[in-house]
Fold these 3 entries.
Entry 1:
Amino acid sequence: MDEPRTREQRQKDTLHRLEHAVDAWVATADGGVPCLVPLSFHWDGAALYLSTLETNPTARNLTANGRVRLTLGETRDVVLIEGVASVVEPSPEVVSAFAARAGFDPSKLARYPYFRVEPRLIQAWREVNEIAGREIMRDGEWI
Amino acid sequence: MDEPRTREQRQKDTLHRLEHAVDAWVATADGGVPCLVPLSFHWDGAALYLSTLETNPTARNLTANGRVRLTLGETRDVVLIEGVASVVEPSPEVVSAFAARAGFDPSKLARYPYFRVEPRLIQAWREVNEIAGREIMRDGEWI
């Protein structure tokens, strides 16, 4: 097992993931019913952008309560993000960056809202020796 | 892009995943708040077994409402399972199989309940050409 990474290293690894990963696992909820789907996303340095058909449970949950948990990566190299989502009209820069990254352009489809997710909590860990120091963002601030 | 797999092939691939994957992404919910964690699991041919500390949100959600969504694999090779969980006292066979697979033995720890998850719905898909035929179990029955 490798030495546990420093918090600084985990923040660097996390930013790399945010900038390069294509998809995330996205969990939302409606009461006690969980929804979990893979979605492409775009990261603009401060927030993630998601888009899915407005009638899908994910979109309905995000619109109704804005609470979301996303994970990037593998189960043994976890980046877990807890955030608050809101429906937005994205800038042209975000529209084109999202389309390039996700491989589809919601701005050209009917009923595909964009959700902007502001991270509030981020945890990053690999093996059990990294569990203790896993928090790298709290209350929206990098630690 | 490969030809879309037949339903039979997806069922075979899914059973292989269930028999060999170590971890799953596990989504549960409490009053509109989603929880998403990676957990090790055991598959006994009919149900999945999970175990986590009883004070963790995942355990509390499973105990409170039993609703769970799990995914195995990657975001471009998805097995998605929707199931109902209940707290169980597992058989000795399940206890030792779980310990061998997960790398820890909840039966030797305090406050680590076992949850048995009965799948009700399973979907399997890779690229967009597999979205249409992705349902391979419905109402607990293989299609």
Entry 2:
Amino acid sequence: MTDFSSVAMMRQNTLRRVLREILLRGPISRAELARITGVSKPTMSEVFRELEEDGWVQVSGRRQGKVGRSAMVYSVAPQRALVFGADVGGTKIRAALVDMTGEIVAETVVATEPSGGDFVVAQIADLADDLAREADVGRSRILAGTIGLPGAFDAATGRLMMVPNIEGLEGSAIRDRLEARLGFSVSIGNDVNMAAKGEQWRGAGAGLSSFAFIALGTGIGMGVINENRILSGARGAAGEIATLPVGADPYDSRTFRSGALETAVGSAAIKDRYEALGGERDLDVRRIIDRLSEDDHRAARVLDEVARCVGAAILAVCAVVDPARVILGGSIGSRQEVLSRVRMAVAGCMPAPPSITISQLGSRAGLLGTLAEGSENLWNELFEADGDSGLVRQRAGGEAGEVA
Amino acid sequence: MTDFSSVAMMRQNTLRRVLREILLRGPISRAELARITGVSKPTMSEVFRELEEDGWVQVSGRRQGKVGRSAMVYSVAPQRALVFGADVGGTKIRAALVDMTGEIVAETVVATEPSGGDFVVAQIADLADDLAREADVGRSRILAGTIGLPGAFDAATGRLMMVPNIEGLEGSAIRDRLEARLGFSVSIGNDVNMAAKGEQWRGAGAGLSSFAFIALGTGIGMGVINENRILSGARGAAGEIATLPVGADPYDSRTFRSGALETAVGSAAIKDRYEALGGERDLDVRRIIDRLSEDDHRAARVLDEVARCVGAAILAVCAVVDPARVILGGSIGSRQEVLSRVRMAVAGCMPAPPSITISQLGSRAGLLGTLAEGSENLWNELFEADGDSGLVRQRAGGEAGEVA
Amino acid sequence: MTDFSSVAMMRQNTLRRVLREILLRGPISRAELARITGVSKPTMSEVFRELEEDGWVQVSGRRQGKVGRSAMVYSVAPQRALVFGADVGGTKIRAALVDMTGEIVAETVVATEPSGGDFVVAQIADLADDLAREADVGRSRILAGTIGLPGAFDAATGRLMMVPNIEGLEGSAIRDRLEARLGFSVSIGNDVNMAAKGEQWRGAGAGLSSFAFIALGTGIGMGVINENRILSGARGAAGEIATLPVGADPYDSRTFRSGALETAVGSAAIKDRYEALGGERDLDVRRIIDRLSEDDHRAARVLDEVARCVGAAILAVCAVVDPARVILGGSIGSRQEVLSRVRMAVAGCMPAPPSITISQLGSRAGLLGTLAEGSENLWNELFEADGDSGLVRQRAGGEAGEVA
Amino acid sequence: MTDFSSVAMMRQNTLRRVLREILLRGPISRAELARITGVSKPTMSEVFRELEEDGWVQVSGRRQGKVGRSAMVYSVAPQRALVFGADVGGTKIRAALVDMTGEIVAETVVATEPSGGDFVVAQIADLADDLAREADVGRSRILAGTIGLPGAFDAATGRLMMVPNIEGLEGSAIRDRLEARLGFSVSIGNDVNMAAKGEQWRGAGAGLSSFAFIALGTGIGMGVINENRILSGARGAAGEIATLPVGADPYDSRTFRSGALETAVGSAAIKDRYEALGGERDLDVRRIIDRLSEDDHRAARVLDEVARCVGAAILAVCAVVDPARVILGGSIGSRQEVLSRVRMAVAGCMPAPPSITISQLGSRAGLLGTLAEGSENLWNELFEADGDSGLVRQRAGGEAGEVA
């Protein structure tokens, strides 16, 4: 490392330290910043010049000091850096932009391109453009993004596996394709893991360092937050609980590929069960659950059965990862009628059951998780990484030198 | 923070940085150290004076330089800091001391004090003394220790729960009791988690960041290493897979407290099964497994059944945490006859099974895990923690100032 | 066959026909009998002489005829032929004598000889003597008997197999031993089959030609009446439903000999379940069931589980033998609390469940069955058999000639 | 009853007795018959005149007597009375005529009328006509018939219930409809019961009084012969083992109507299992079993699973009816590959398994059973019934008087 670059690095590090403190403590005066960071007055002036010039910092008011003088206080310009998040499902894509203070500045939901593959990749890129327009910010202000997708993203191979309901993504180097189109750094997350992350950020997992989020809808999946980190597993397949040995014999050939639990719960299973009892055919699952309020004994029985399967699955999850809480989500899991039954079932198989609640974010959980994840990634890029950061990468050529 | 302390802190930080580099790169010369750390020559002299005076560093030889001059090279004095580890089981305690280079300098195994509680605590303290004597090092050189215990250690409450086979430890603030007796900082780990840690350090988990260690003996338990960290769970009960819904209906009252899987596998279950088939009574489990080689069809059937239960348990574990490998340990799990059957069972319920192997460390796995864990703790205390470290705590009064 | 014996046979046959009609239609006059049987007046006189002389028939009154004359009417002397029945259980023996009109003339209950084997055989013989004394009839008037025993009586080999709770009877030629001691013809029946027979005779099976009686107490067993006959099976083991594949995996080694259903229900299972839930230890099963009225949720859960097992067993029984009704008996099966739960369970697994009721005879069902069975045997011996009958065998030497 | 009819009855009874003996003992001379029956010479002459005139008896040869004279010997004319049998399946009808000696004189197989109901009834009637023509006997010589049908024939209501695969027969008073079209007395039997009967008559059940025949093909069903009688149950549904609690939880809503065992075995289940393991799609079950010889591990696994279910079903059947043997039939059950696996499975769940063999009659078992059943019915009508018999009914007006 040359002396020159080492000086540049030092300046950049100082610049980061100051920016970090403004973000964490702002509005704040220069004097306070100097005291905290130990940065000398002249350097601080230089730093502020750069930060203001580059749009990171803005004056946010004036504060009366102790000795009668008032001081200007500064904040980070919230929209200087935006994070893009998208939760891509088989039928819908939810996408949003969040600013540096965590405020969502634009949000949308569209139908997923049925052609899958590159069409979906293109669709995601268009959404980023649309949202920037909607929020009235420059597209280049989007510095990072996270995309939630069904399936297991194997970080080692960079490939998405086990994608159940979007064509043309299985085995794909999806992250590279997305970064190429979006022009900012992208991370990929499993959709249910993202929902767990979302619940931790602003939902039923707030304040918890270890909990599980179980999504029960068309199928069943789980995201686990363990010591504040998403549990991914060796191949990104942690939480794929469709195969849990619950509800059927795991050695029965019929569940070998589909998964024992998956065949026992979820929309298709609920409809099958209801019809097998002689219930009305082709009824929507939502409607079957609604019938509980009409004292439909078939619906009650079906839900009891599903709840017992989910209860045993929760038992298995607790045996392996010991979460402080289990949050139920998904179109079926979010129903109060399901929650009460699952709680009863769990009480029947666990002497010391965990707290069980319903998702607070509903269908937006996954999206909020991508925003939280993307924001964390950006923070790490800006403030934790050594040396050359994404912040610098963003800015082309000579400019980078100025910032650093 | 006063200026004085801030200077002391800077000196201490410098001292740490130098020591860290000697440990990581030694034998190394002062010149090389200065180049790497950017520490000036006078400061380096001062640092070396302190490190040598305090016994951390020793001359380990002389190296021929490029320009004909030879330079002295330095290493860390391995036994300046020792770590104590003990794996406390219902019948035996294994204990050892490991030095800073990872070499075990003394090791022993004794019968567990049957009276339990304080007797076991005292026994552990005596073991530390004995080992120090045996290694011929000062007792005060033991700077940290880790104790592996059956049960779940809830870090939040500091209490040990669910202790199956040692009296007087359930609900105990065991860490405080041990630190009071041992005089150095102690961490507590679940015995099976420690075994997993041991396998990662020097066994079948070497090089793996995510894997599961399943101990099958009297009972069944699991330790998971996930992204290089022990998976503990919210209450320290992660991996308590005795309750997995496998081998019996989890809603059956008879498995409500004992756990479905626990009643289906383990020594008692194997004996029950063997006798229920009309096999010889009161036969030791080891002997029952031995009989496989005598074409005992009852033994074969019993082992097949147990393997199917273990196989379904592995399926459940993979569904939740997706390990890259499953290592079988414990008196039963370590048997080749069991491994081959479990592999066959897993192939029958998982289309893409994980690698499954046997523990390489056998009954020493847990002990080695405590040594690894203790060494990591010490490293963190010495080199990662901010400000006042255990290293400093170790040294009383004015001495601390000298080191820092 | 000589002419002489053929005439004797004809006379005996005539005698039987007349006796049969008196038994079925009495009180009845000689004239009516002559009209019905076509027996000539002189032969009828001869027949009556013999029947009266031998004590079979007695004048029971006088009836006003159509044309003013009154006629004597005759009935069978009820106590001319008695039938002995005994229901032999592990702890108690119930025994009784029944006369030709079906009236029980003496009945007793004693503790089973704990020494088993010949001691029990002798005890049964003593009971026959005691009952005859109590009823004040000649011991020789007991012409037949039926003994109900636990286990399967294999008529082909004449041996009693699978005797769970009386020593010294397994594999025994029990019928020969009993006939040798009792001095009259004896038939052996399974105790639960006898209870089914008793319920058909005078209990909840009255008027039904096909039903099942399930005894649930210490263990579980079943007697089936099919087209008015006891279903025995090829080796007398029909109804041994302890082995039904219900409540546990029938391929699990632990149920290989004991039977899956047997391990899931019955007194021991109920106690195990109750205690496994944390219920009071060493509580009598009767008391556990009583606790339902005290809102003991553990007792409720245990009974629900047992009822589900019994319900699935009833499903299996219906699939195989299609009974019109299932009668629950035994100390546990007779409880109203169990009945209501079993009905609910059955409704959950059978779209068209059979009628399910409780035994009307309680602990006397088996005894009454032996009396019914013995009476039928005697009837067949007297009136259905060709040639030399037990009736004739009873009467020694020359007398036989007289009767015939 | 008038004197006249009573004389007629006596003559008819005599005629029957003689005919019975000729049938049982023929060829036989008049003198021998007289000796056996005690019928006087003149009466015997009269009886022979009538029997010959009516075609029942024919001279079958001449036998050398003891004292030099030869005597004519008589036999029953085999085709004087024929019995019609038909085994009606969802796709095929097998039908045949059997004569009085048990010889099948005509047999055919046709596709079942797909329109069902009355079309099938008409088709059966046509088959009787066709077979009579083929055998070259008068249609009026068919005196009785038995029709085997899928479903449960409730003798009490005269209705056929639970007919799985022929339209328009459910709930039908099928016997009345058939008798109206066929013009002779008809009995209805369940097709699998008939197969059991057939196996007892001329197959793997010959000589056994108690055994079970399990048909495993599209679905699963059972016929039990108990003490030489078909076990029918209260509503004709005995042996409907599709609902046995084997292979799935009987309380699972999905098996509530279809039956747990039915969903686990049979053609559809085998195909499902094979495909779920990744096997070739839309393969015929016969072909899947064939693949065992090509070491197809998927086929082997599927068959093992099916065999375990069948094995547990056999366990249940033995627990309830204790058969001496279990005969496997049906397109799947008749396969040697299935037999060997079922035997192995049964050895794994029963310490004392029954003998298990394969059907000897294959797809003709049911037909042969109807012929045996019809022949028995005819025998009873001719020789066991009191008073007015079908034999008499057959012969119109004055003729009847002459015979009687």
Entry 3:
Amino acid sequence: MMEKVRLGIIGLGAQGGNYTRFISEGKVKNIVIGGFCDTDPDKRKAYTEKYPDIPFYDNYTDLLNSGNVDAIVTTVPHYLHPKIGIAALERNIHTLVEKPAGVYTKQVNELNAFAESKPELTFAVFFNQRTNPLYQKVKELIDDGEIGDIRRTNWIITAWWRPQGYYDQSEWRATWEGEGGGVLVNQAPHQLDLLQWIAGMPKKVYSVVKYGYQRDIAVEDDVTVVLDYGNGATGVFITATHDVLGTNRFEILGDKGKIIVDDSKKITIKRLHNPESEMSNTMSWADIKKLTGGGDMSQIYSEEVLEFKSVWGKQHIAILENFAGNILDGTELVAPGSDGIHGVALANAIHLSSWLGKEVELPIDEDVFLAELNKKIQEEKRALVEK
Amino acid sequence: MMEKVRLGIIGLGAQGGNYTRFISEGKVKNIVIGGFCDTDPDKRKAYTEKYPDIPFYDNYTDLLNSGNVDAIVTTVPHYLHPKIGIAALERNIHTLVEKPAGVYTKQVNELNAFAESKPELTFAVFFNQRTNPLYQKVKELIDDGEIGDIRRTNWIITAWWRPQGYYDQSEWRATWEGEGGGVLVNQAPHQLDLLQWIAGMPKKVYSVVKYGYQRDIAVEDDVTVVLDYGNGATGVFITATHDVLGTNRFEILGDKGKIIVDDSKKITIKRLHNPESEMSNTMSWADIKKLTGGGDMSQIYSEEVLEFKSVWGKQHIAILENFAGNILDGTELVAPGSDGIHGVALANAIHLSSWLGKEVELPIDEDVFLAELNKKIQEEKRALVEK
């Protein structure tokens, strides 16, 4: 049995660079870098100078065929994760795909189906925020029924400010062809995953999405979504990249209480002594008026506040270690690769609802979505030519 | 010229009783009670015993024809405000209608049109929350452009908890025939008015409305709305009567800052030193990362927090005094009667969107709405018969 996982890092942009640093600085248990891959000659120059002992490949097939890696992570443009993931799994190489697992569900389903045919391999998705103790705690509270059945979710996550200069960094950024979307595909996939991880997938969504609202981009920078969970519960999800005073507030109402998460730092848990439906049936209107008119609210609920420290970086290390742990000794995965579909399905449904101007059911029709996405890509190409 | 306005109070339920108390205890400047009206013999008994010097009428026409009142307030079921309002104005009696001004826009438009033919009379609507210094301050901040052009509004107002016993108090409550709706018609009209008073009317709305979701009622107890302001700005409005841990959080994002109102008690104002669009165009991605990665955010904005005390009761007195002031010396009205249409138009559009299952434009088709409402009333009657 291998002692340490030899990881191939495919794509040396910002995230690939971060993972390289974490691993080469010895911060990640049980992983060594087995090889690098990037198509950019400047990256080759920089990496071979800095890491002369680690092989560098200009294309991922060579890396996968080299025999130097037991596993890979795909820090490449979103469209490429499924293709590279399948190529790796085909060669019996464990695979960690960056989020989002792909741009459209059709390609992510193909990846998942292929991975299912290789159950002996480790297949994971880089949802680092799932390792955040704060969100783990929220999930635990919900799973344990601490606030009962969910009636409403409400997440305003506009703390994704990006200036125009961010979008102008490269040609492919914030384009349909290059990224397949904006804030839904690039920034908010974490929250889309956490939301469904914690509260489950909605059955229907309706969205109002603004494309190039406050930025000179083709894709979306402002998103409002209504989620219908199919059991009476409703949700709202709001995200944007133009709010420099970004809000990050996640509220979950259950029939036994409420959880409010502020700025990914603080959880306020309000636990009702009795289920709300019971209170509704037993309390008189006069009781209520007395209570809400300055009465002692501790008669009906208790409040707990939990504070958490920001742990950026540690999360990424935790995902890498968890991936290696699953390979080496079967440690349970925090984010199995097959889970990547949910966030993509949500993002696709949100886009599709806005394109069709109506509520859409999940799962959406993958072919309709792909046809609409391809239309956007064609329009974008025509617009570029006209420029 | 009259020294004090002789007010007729039509309807002696909870609000009529409150106004009677305020006025008879001398808390309301420039108003005396000229007459009472209620159809309930028990009310006649109680009021004539307690206020033997004030005439009591069993129907409003007698009160209006008595010569004993210069003005009236209509604390009656919502459907009746327009009819009684017109009857009063016809007799040159100043009119203050309770909120909502009516159940459907068609009847409120009729009232407004009639009032317009009597410009010499004072016509007002009882939006007491407009006298709340907190909301006046928010309006002033927006009107003065302190946070620039609005990009997003978000109001979660679920602090309207009502137990089943509240709904079971009387036959007409929470029925289509008796009230014409639930939380949108009975509890949330204040916020619907404040929202449009502060941020303007939307051009379109899409809603998900739950009827009898957590209560045994025919009308709505859970509402989620997406507002499209037609200029790129979007809003979300959420209200419910089943959240005993009610949230009241109103956030407005502008291109120069943000306002957050918590629990109708605290305003947090964040003012950007430069408009967001300018920051987007001048700041580099590296600058931003430095700033958001623990930098000094006071470089980009300043924060002010204003705390307010709860002022229930005072608000109602303020509206009554403002109404009398307009009659006596032309004091500007806080809530001119014609303003009553906006909240009703919003509530109607929200209902209609949920009934049709699609986004609707404002102003909505009044006849379509009324036909749908009458269908609900008929269904309700059939259901009652079947019981």
